[in-house]
Design goal:
The complex is a heterodimer of chains A (506) and B (400). Chain A contains 17 helices and 24 strands. With 506 residues, chain A is α/β, with parallel strands linked by helices. The chains are: A alpha/beta (506), B mainly alpha (400).
């Protein structure tokens, strides 16, 4: 067996913080390497180094025995490394065929002109789609197909290259169970053809089923790379975490009360969510778990009044909501910590103080001209920041963009604290922040609940929901597909519900 | 098996460029100084002063070398500044929320015409009998309220309301129909320019009452720099130190500065300009603020129209025709970002001063109008480039 890829002592730091530290891995031809680790462990950075997206600070890579130094993604592509990203890189306004051939359309001569050979494009697109088991028209635009189908198109595109090495970064998050199975069959076929793959996933059983060897990363370092036989799920988790899971979450300090704060009754919007019923009580943390594309974010946006609801009703604190707008929701003391800090949460170039004060701004207004009482505003912002133990310089001077991810998230939460909300809708509040900051966010969630707020905690990390919630609801394909109380929490059962494997435990 | 712990002894990382760099050399501190200067609020003011001093040495008529020309010219400079300042203040507001208002020139034209239609005291029938308003609204005796004591206040009020009204149309179309600001204001620009020309059949309306003309030229405090002996002082030797336009434009600018920095609306404007979605989720009434800002922009354009019309003494349907580049140029030179979320009235004031001075110098150099326009374009290009460079600089400073 020949060594295809050899990564030696590679290091990459961003702004002085090492994301990947002296990592060495090897990959044989015709094998699948499973790569696991928590969010922020450095998996994606390592893959970006191999895929030419970023360049290493030190260390070397050998590919097919020769020195390999990709300057950019195109360099990696031409060297023979295909990279299927976690975030899809398709042009949603173009057709499947156009996406597949965007880099090199087959052409034919027409006098001095090179024309796109439409017949060949159609023919070859169909063949490529058939390989991944998709039966779609090549002319469909990407925005008309499901997230799972998009993922498979992306894979078809990677296969088109005949790359000896294919990197899969969390390919199954948006796939249905059946599509996932089809992908695994395909990967096994590719392995038999002698291609090598790197497979990154949070679903450890999948990694165990597929991989020949498994590499575990933690805090930017390689913990170990060993043959698959040496692993079971328990060992994988303890290697990833590096400490007992018990210490990852703060203890909950108070029990839910009986008063219902939020009641969602039969909310539907065609093709997005269907007949959603849920309640959140005072002091309760309710987890909403679902895979990507399950409709959880869409539901949150509807509850906050950002997208429209077709039928069903919403009762907040005993009052039925009649107008669905963010402003109305804020007036009803609902807070929405959005999934995406950069795009929807923060004003990056604006000072921390102004960010924190934004929601409650009208409350600092004086006189008919709505003059802002600056000193009171700043005092309140400072107070909220100190409650959340925000680590920053002068909040009046420092812009939000200069903060770390965890501290940025605290600014988002602080901004809502000033509006004195009773219900928090938190969509992926710990995405992209490090383990230590996560713990702080969990503590804040616990504190908010202990102070009588109700929290709808949306996450795709099941582990954190199990660690923090009183109750977990599972969403799948726009419906609530399971409900679990704390004493019923079991990762496997909940995941099954998310995948809609009804047979076993539901 | 032993696992490497995260805090195990590691060789110190030498990845930060700052850490590996040699101690600050003279060259480096020079660069730091330049960066500071570039990021300073007063950058354009320094630039204006440098431009003024160097021009004064080259073209004596503008500045220090000619004692006779100096105060006169400076007074003129300021008179040129005020109307441009008024309209540029409104544009700055729109740019700060990430929009653009191309229609300001047409607002100036139509309000100038409508003001004159209300106030004019005498009209030449041969010139206006083709106007659609002839015989009903305007006659040989003048405008709608000719001779009335209320003509000026009502005329001015009509101009201001019309300006704000057109701004409202812009804002309404942008927020409720979700049409791009560029498109909406381009349409209002075309429509109201044409409307002003149609109403007057391309003629200037003269005969504006004295009370109105004072708004464009009248002095409040004057300066006389000649010898004390002569009993009669020629009018042209009296220099306006504080004139009505000064008070009106500076008052408007101060009010705008107050709105922008002290009120809820100002903070919400920056929020919208920085990140519209985040602002909406945070409960900012985006639509209302955007409409208010476009109304303010139209209002500022009509104030500028009052100052220009009163100074020229006519209602001019072509007023503001070629002003768009000057307006946006002055705002951008003053540091207002075309990407939204950044800008100040102070900057716009400096930008206007710089721009007017530059034009004055170019005129004094007796360059052809084409060359002047080309230089103008070049300067605005440099300003827009500086805008991008500043953003990069700020980002680099923060990530280091």
């Amino acid at each position: 067996m020949t060594t295809l890829l050899e990564v030696q002592q590679i290091t990459k730091a961003f702004f002085g913080v090492a994301a990947v530290k002296e990592v060495s891995i090897t990959l044989e031809a015709g094998q699948i390497l499973g790569l696991i680790g928590q969010n922020g462990a450095g998996k994606s950075t390592l893959m970006n180094l191999i895929g030419g997206v970023v360049q290493p600070d030190s260390g070397t890579m050998l590919f097919k025995g020769a020195s390999y130094t990709p300057r950019n993604p195109a360099g990696a592509y031409h060297a023979g490394i295909a990279f299927i990203h976690q975030e899809l890189n398709l042009f949603t306004n173009l057709s499947i065929a156009e996406n597949l051939f965007i880099e090199d359309f087959p052409t034919r001569s027409f006098g001095p002109l090179r024309l796109v050979d439409r017949a060949a494009v159609q023919q070859r697109t169909k063949e490529m789609l058939a390989k991944v088991g998709l039966n779609l028209s090549p002319n469909l635009t990407i925005d008309r197909i499901s997230p799972g189908e998009r993922q498979l198109v992306e894979i078809a595109k990677a296969l088109h290259l005949d790359a000896p090495l294919i990197i899969f970064d969390e390919p199954t998050t948006s796939l249905t169970a059946r599509e996932t199975e089809r992908l695994f069959t395909l990967m096994n076929q590719l392995r038999e053809q002698g291609r090598a793959m790197i497979y990154i996933s949070h679903i450890l059983n999948d990694v165990l089923a597929l991989a020949n060897s498994i590499a575990v990363m933690r805090d930017g370092q390689l913990v170990t790379q060993e043959p698959r036989q040496n692993f079971d799920v328990k060992r994988m988790i303890s290697l990833m975490v590096g400490r007992s899971i018990d210490n990852l979450y703060p203890p909950r300090t108070a029990a839910p009360q009986s008063q219902t704060l939020l009641e969602v009754d039969g909310v539907s919007a065609k093709g997005i969510v269907e007949n959603i019923h849920l309640t959140v009580k005072r002091g309760e943390v309710v987890g909403l778990f679902g895979l990507m594309g399950s409709g959880r974010t869409e539901l949150a946006r509807m509850l906050f009044g950002m997208d429209s609801i077709e039928s069903g009703s919403l009762t907040i604190n005993g009052q039925r909501v009649t107008r669905f707008t963010p402003r109305e929701s804020i007036r009803q003391h609902v807070a929405f910590v959005t999934e995406n800090r950069r795009e929807e949460g923060l004003l990056m170039n604006i000072s921390i103080a102004d960010n924190v004060a934004l929601v409650a701004l009208p409350e600092f207004a004086r006189t008919a001209f709505q003059v802002v009482d600056q000193s009171q505003m700043r005092d309140s912002a400072r107070h909220a920041s100190s409650i959340l133990q925000l680590k920053s310089g002068d909040i009046v001077q420092q812009p939000a963009r200069s903060l770390s991810g965890g501290n940025q998230q605290k600014v988002v939460i602080a901004k809502w604290l000033l509006a004195n909300p009773a219900i928090f809708i938190m969509d992926e509040p710990t995405r992209g922040i490090d383990v230590g900051a996560k713990y702080e966010i969990y503590s804040i969630i616990d504190q908010l609940a202990a102070n009588g707020s109700g929290i709808l905690f949306i996450s795709s990390e099941l582990e954190e929901l199990i660690g923090m919630c009183d109750r977990i609801l599972v969403m799948s394909r726009g419906e609530i597909f399971g409900e679990f109380d704390r004493d019923q929490f079991n990762a496997e059962t909940i995941l099954r519900a998310a995948f809609r494997e009804e047979g076993d435990s539901l | 098996m032993t696992l490497p712990t995260p805090d195990s002894a590691q060789p110190p990382l030498t990845l930060l460029p700052a850490a590996s760099e040699p101690p600050k050399s003279r060259r480096r501190s020079g660069i730091v100084f330049l960066q500071r200067l570039l990021l300073s609020d007063y950058f354009v003011l320094y630039l204006t002063l440098i431009l003024f001093t160097s021009a004064a040495l080259i073209f004596p008529r503008i500045g220090l070398a000619s004692t006779l020309g100096l105060p006169n010219n400076i007074a003129n400079q300021f008179l040129n500044m005020w109307p441009l300042l008024a309209v540029a203040v409104g544009q700055s507001f729109v740019l700060i929320i990430g929009g653009i208002d191309l229609s300001q020139g047409s607002v100036m034209a139509i309000t100038s015409v409508i003001g004159a239609v209300v106030m004019s005291t005498v009209l030449e029938p041969a010139m206006f009998d083709k106007s659609p308003l002839w015989g009903t609204v305007i006659t040989a005796d003048g405008g709608l309220l000719h001779g009335s004591a209320w003509a000026v206040p009502i005329g001015v009020l009509a101009m201001l309301l019309l300006g704000a009204g057109i701004g409202f149309l812009n804002g309404f179309a942008i927020t409720k129909f979700r049409i791009a600001p560029f498109m909406v204001t381009l349409v209002t620009l075309t429509f109201f320019s044409a409307f002003a020309l149609w109403l007057t059949q391309s003629r200037n309306i003269s005969g504006l009452p004295e009370g109105f003309l004072r708004l464009g030229t009248g002095d409040i405090i004057s300066v006389y720099l000649g010898p004390k002996l002569e009993p009669d002082i020629a009018r042209r030797d009296i220099l306006p130190a504080i004139a009505y336009p000064t008070v009106i434009a500076l008052g408007l600018a101060l009010f705008a500065q107050f709105l922008l920095t002290r009120t809820v609306m100002g903070k919400q404007m920056f929020a919208i300009g920085t990140n519209r979605r985040a602002a909406q989720i945070s409960g900012v009434p985006n639509d209302r603020v955007i409409i208010m800002v476009y109304m303010f922009s139209g209002f500022c354009a009509s104030v500028s129209s009052i100052l220009y019309s009163a100074r020229l003494g006519i209602g001019q349907p072509s007023l503001g025709n070629n002003l768009l580049l000057d307006i946006i140029g002055a705002a951008v030179i003053g540091g207002t970002s075309l990407f939204g979320g950044k800008g100040s009235i102070k900057g716009t004031l400096f930008g206007v001063a710089f721009f007017v001075l530059l034009l004055n110098i170019l005129n004094a150099a007796r360059l052809s109008p084409f060359i002047i326009d080309a230089v103008k374009g070049g300067v605005i290009l440099v300003a827009a480039f500086l805008d991008v460079a500043r953003v990069r600089l700020v980002n680099r400073e923060q990530s280091a």
